[in-house]
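Researcher: Dear colleague, please comment on this protein.
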Amino acid sequence: MTAPVPDSGPFNIGQAARQSGVSAKMVRHYEALGLLPPVHRTDAGYRQYGDKQIHTLRFIRRARALGFSMLEIAELLKLWQNQQRASADVKRIAQVHVADLERRIAEMQAMRQTLAQLADCCQGNERPDCPILSGLAD
């Protein structure tokens, strides 16, 4: 359960980007995707962010660093903001993501092994025949 974050802003988009560790471009992107609700704008149209939005941006940044997709992050944000959530729902998302990471790691290890074998077979000399290119063409 997270305590409400008081607003100490307003911060402009550059300040919010610096405080959250997210680029201004990504702040706009997350807002366009609906991960960050639209923020208050000044009469001149400049976005104004508070601590709550910066906290949300940090949450998104950490989730992205763990490789969660935008759809997964949207789900996690809804659960994070719902004080009535069941932790089992959060755990399910995390477990599915762990399984996906394990699958991708296995695929990458297989790719690495295949490429290493092809590279070991290549003489790397001035001759035109190359097992790497032959292996890719098969």
